[in-house]
Specification:
This protein has ten helices and 15 strands. The relative contact order is 0.12. It has helices spanning 2-8, 16-29, 58-64, 76-81, 91-97, 148-153, 157-172, 198-209, 256-266, 305-324, and strands at 34-40, 46-51, 100-106, 113-119, 126-130, 135-141, 179-184, 187-192, 218-224, 227-237, 244-248, 251-253, 274-283, 289-291, 300-302. The longest helix is centred in the C-terminal third of the chain and has 20 residues, at 305-324. Bound molecules: adenosine-5'-diphosphate (ADP) and magnesium ion (MG). Adenosine-5'-diphosphate is lined by residues 22, 26-27, 30, 51, 53-56, 64, 69-72, 86-93, 136.
């Protein structure tokens, strides 16, 4: 029961962006290296995701839509290890209980594709054969159609799209090995090709975070006592949105200690109208850090907090000093 409770604690369907997050994570879990999203009307009307991952066998389609049916966990120990990606086994079930969901899939080993449709809470699932390339598509129509109270909480199309865009950016900065695209109302707005070289990774960062990270980004590479930091720094003008992304062992974090170290490193170096922008990746032994189990909190606790803080501060300060010298 403890596992079930921990699992149930995760928030799932809050708004269109949370649907996108869950669906993209499923595609990543399935080993996809190409993920395409089509959104209509900020996701209220329609969300479609297509991946080229391992697919779901015909006989497992219905199961994939049922609550606590996860193929990814067998005991509590696993929970710690795969916390970063969908571990709760309820995303598809939760989404299909508040929308009209169509799951279409074809594993490479199966000769034809199959489609399962679920609508609302009664969960009567219909199966039929269809055409689809290897991989999976999930279409989510009319989000919250049967829960007017929740529907009321949806913001404007523009605001919901911004949340979706931000969700995709965070993921795109953590998976350079996967190509992503995003269409809104039929228009291709984002396209992040696979980035397998340092130069193409920096290009993706510039695409995601806008111009400041182009030519003028400052490259960070630093290592000390099992800590490894790499990424990019830039100064952006105050009237552009914040681009501050920090990943700890591949997961995005917003953490006071990290924030403090970065702010301190920039102290006195920012022009009056500028603010610090960064995309940074810290790698360290997983046993040296506790990640809050709540997936939305982005909090982290380092066992050697002082060491980590000073390491980040020093790595950035050195790079900044060299650049401004
Ligand atoms: P979880 O991801 O926690 O296992 P979900 O409800 O998100 O739970 O998904 C249920 C199951 O459906 C997954 O365990 C997986 O087996 C299957 N699944 C979902 N999406 C995909 C996908 N895009 N490709 C392959 N399998 C998928
Ligand atoms: Mg999942």
């Amino acid at each position: 029961a403890r596992l079930a409770n921990q699992i149930a604690a995760g928030e799932v369907v809050e708004r269109p962006a949370s649907v996108i997050k869950e669906l993209v994570e499923n595609s990543l879990d399935a080993g996809a290296d190409k993920i395409d999203l089509e959104i209509d009307r900020g996701g209220h009307k329609r969300i479609l995701i297509r991946d080229n991952g391992s697919g779901i066998a015909r006989d497992e389609l219905e199961l994939a839509l049922s609550r606590h049916a996860t193929s990814k966990i067998s005991c509590l120990d696993d929970l710690e290890q795969i916390m970063s990606l969908g571990f709760r086994g309820e995303a598809l079930a939760s989404i299909s209980s508040v929308a009209r969901l169509t799951l279409t899939s074809k594993p490479a080993t199966q000769s034809e594709a199959w489609q399962a449709k679920a609508e609302g809470r009664d969960m009567a699932v219909q199966l039929q054969p269809t055409a689809h390339p290897d991989g999976t598509s999930v279409e989510v129509l009319d989000l919250f159609f049967n829960t007017p109270a929740r529907r009321k909480f949806l913001r404007s199309e523009k605001t919901e799209f911004q949340h979706i865009d931000e969700t995709l950016k965070r993921i795109a900065l953590s998976r350079f090995d996967v190509a992503f695209s995003l269409k809104h109302n039929g228009k291709l707005l984002r396209h992040y090709p696979k980035a397998n070289t340092e130069a193409s990774r920096q290009k993706r960062v510039a695409l995601v975070c806008s111009a400041g990270f182009g030519e003028h980004a400052l490259n960070i590479q630093s290592q000390y006592q099992g800590l490894h930091l790499h990424g990019w720094l830039a100064v952006q003008s105050s009237n552009t949105p914040d681009h501050q992304y920090f990943y700890v062992n591949g997961r995005m974090m917003r953490d006071k200690l990290i924030h403090h170290a970065i702010r301190q490193a920039f102290e006195g170096l920012l022009p009056p109208e500028g603010h610090a922008a960064y995309v940074l990746y810290l790698q360290l032994d997983a046993r040296e850090v506790d990640v809050n189990v709540h997936p939305a909190k982005h909090e982290v606790r380092f066992h050697q907090a002082r060491l980590v803080h000073d390491f980040i501060f020093r790595a950035l300060q050195d790079a900044l000093n060299q650049a401004t010298a």
